[in-house]
Design brief:
seven-stranded mixed β-sheet; globular; alpha/beta; 162 residues; 7 strands; Glutaredoxin
Length: 162
Amino acid sequence: MVGVGEIAPDFEGRTGDGGKLALASLRGRPLVLYFYPKANTLGCTIEARGFAEHYSEFQKAGVGVVGVSVDTVEDQHGFSEKCQLPFPLIADADKSIARRYGALGLLGVAKRVTFLIDADGKILEVHQGALPGAHVKIALERLVTGSAVSGPKPSTPGDAGP
């Protein structure tokens, strides 16, 4: 698994709306990159809605949020709409992103793991665990209310969202 202090591996993936998103395009501000096992499951829904509920706080702090699972673009689209997510979900159906991060589990789905990445692309913290609420809480503590954020904050909240 990619560890603290390493540069987050770049990738380009398809989002739930069918567009493309490259990690490199998000450099310049801190990022929460979270992997989750399966769209539309209970734990993953709780986690996604938790990030959505606090998204305005992440934006105000200049922090982006991106979710990744090995689901299809169609599944990601439906999940995003169901949960009314204001941030992108990456469809990693070929599992290449999860493999690159060391986040692919034994059953062929992503592990629940969250990478906190600084504005320069360096991994500040890695959190693994089954409890979805803990991932949101740690991201908030470290990147919104803590001192882990590096780089300038945006001048307006609209500048912060991915």
